């Protein structure tokens, strides 16, 4: 449908556009730059979310996600929320009030999961590592032996604040040996790091649209195991908005979602999943992300900087860079912004000594090279001022 503006509409549009018009090349932690094709499909005129067309796109998106996540035995759920909604859903649907959850923490977003556990009247048992370090299988095994009464284990697959990728397949194996539920925060991992839902035996893995898929925020996606539904069906006071069995009933009846979903984001995600298929499939897509992150890490190391993540556990979607003594991460962020590049400030307990470079969403390798060239000049200039 062609959009037609009258003079008042045009004036209103221009007033807001001046506030939000693109000014920077984005290397953020999210929301990230969106694919032009995503923005184009999201501009179509709205229609009823109960229409046959909306239901068809919803069902098609579920199937494409099921293939991408290798979740033949998982139920795909779309929430009209951020990924944090699934943190709450996981806890309220499966853990009784007062029950314990082992929360692995390697940064700020692991701490958020612990806060969600406690805010919902459950007890968080914390296994915390120093920022920059991943949880090792033997450490998780030891903690589970000390706490055999926990109902579930949470793992932040990719810690956005520290740029660290946890060894999820190995950690999942430990969780299964102790017969606990496994909840995976994959907000900045899904779409950029491999996920094999069935093979790794995950019970619930979730993410948000505004990260590696390169879609605007407002949609959360997850794959959920049958074991979760079996527990949830008997769980009292699991709420309504994040009632997982209710969402499955709507899936089964091909009715979409219980409440109104963000249709534009679903359309955008569907386009991205089709792009992935046409680019050569999941492996080619993930290889692209790996090459992006390697290019950035090699670039910053050539400048004499270090990355926060321990070797072998670096994130494929975001890099936390440690600044030299006497320099502040926010100074690098601000200087790069003046040059037209939006990086990400340091976050959490390492905020002052780091800045972050995201490589999610729509960007080219030429963009990365240009950003690194400017970063080199910024770092050299700041060193001279120290």
Describe this structure in words.
This protein is α/β, with parallel strands linked by helices and 386 residues long. The chain folds into 2 domains: 7-34 and 283-385, Aspartate Aminotransferase, domain 1 (Alpha-Beta Complex), CATH 3.90.1150; 38-276, Aspartate Aminotransferase, domain 2 (3-Layer(aba) Sandwich). It has 14 helices and 15 strands. It has helices spanning 7-20, 36-41, 52-68, 84-94, 108-119, 137-146, 168-177, 197-200, 226-232, 244-252, 263-278, 282-302, 329-338, 365-385, and strands at 25-26, 75-79, 100-105, 123-128, 152-156, 158-159, 164-165, 181-185, 204-208, 220-224, 306-307, 318-322, 341-342, 344-345, 354-358. Helix 12 runs parallel beside helix 14. The N and C termini lie far apart (57 Å).
Outline, from the CA principal axes? Answer: globular
Main sheet specs: 7 strands, mixed
Class based on secondary structure composition and strand pairing: alpha/beta
Sequence of strands across the biggest β-sheet: 2-10-9-8-5-3-4
């Amino acid at each position: 449908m062609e959009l037609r503006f009258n003079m008042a509409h045009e004036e209103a549009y221009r007033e807001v556009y001046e506030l939000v018009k693109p000014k920077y090349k984005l290397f953020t932690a999210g929301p990230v730059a969106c694919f032009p094709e995503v923005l184009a499909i999201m501009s179509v005129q709205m229609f009823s979310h109960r229409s046959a067309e909306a239901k068809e796109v919803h069902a098609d998106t579920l199937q494409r996600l099921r293939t991408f996540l290798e979740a033949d035995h998982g139920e795909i759920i779309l929430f009209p929320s951020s990924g944090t909604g699934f943190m709450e859903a996981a806890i309220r649907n499966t853990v009784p009030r007062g029950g314990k959850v082992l929360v692995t923490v390697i940064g700020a977003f692991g701490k958020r999961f612990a806060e969600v556990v406690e805010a919902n009247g459950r007890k968080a048992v914390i296994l915390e590592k120093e920022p920059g370090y991943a949880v090792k299988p033997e450490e998780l095994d030891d903690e589970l032996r000390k706490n055999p009464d926990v109902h579930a284990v949470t793992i932040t697959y990719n810690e956005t604040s520290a740029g660290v990728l946890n060894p999820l397949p190995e950690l999942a194996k430990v969780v299964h040996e102790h017969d606990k539920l496994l909840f995976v925060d994959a907000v900045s991992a899904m779409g950029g790091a491999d996920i094999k839902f069935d093979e790794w035996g995950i019970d619930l893995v979730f993410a948000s649209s505004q990260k590696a898929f390169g879609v605007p925020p407002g949609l959360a996606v997850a794959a959920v195991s049958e074991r979760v539904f079996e527990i949830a069906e008997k769980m009292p006071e699991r709420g309504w908005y994040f009632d997982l069995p209710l969402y499955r009933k709507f899936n089964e009846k091909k009715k979409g979602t219980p409440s109104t979903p963000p249709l534009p984001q679903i359309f955008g995600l569907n386009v991205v999943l089709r792009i992935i298929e046409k680019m050569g499939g999941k492996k080619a897509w993930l290889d692209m992300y790996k090459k992006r992150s390697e290019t950035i890490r090699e670039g910053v190391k050539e400048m004499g900087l270090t990355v926060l993540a321990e070797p072998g556990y670096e994130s494929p979607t975001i890099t936390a860079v440690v600044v030299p003594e006497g320099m502040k991460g926010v100074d690098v962020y601000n200087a790069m912004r003046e040059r037209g590049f939006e990086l990400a400030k340091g976050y959490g307990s390492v905020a002052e000594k780091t800045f972050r470079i995201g490589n999610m969403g729509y960007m080219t390798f030429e963009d990365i090279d240009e950003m690194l060239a400017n970063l080199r000049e910024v770092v050299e200039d700041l060193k001279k001022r120290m």
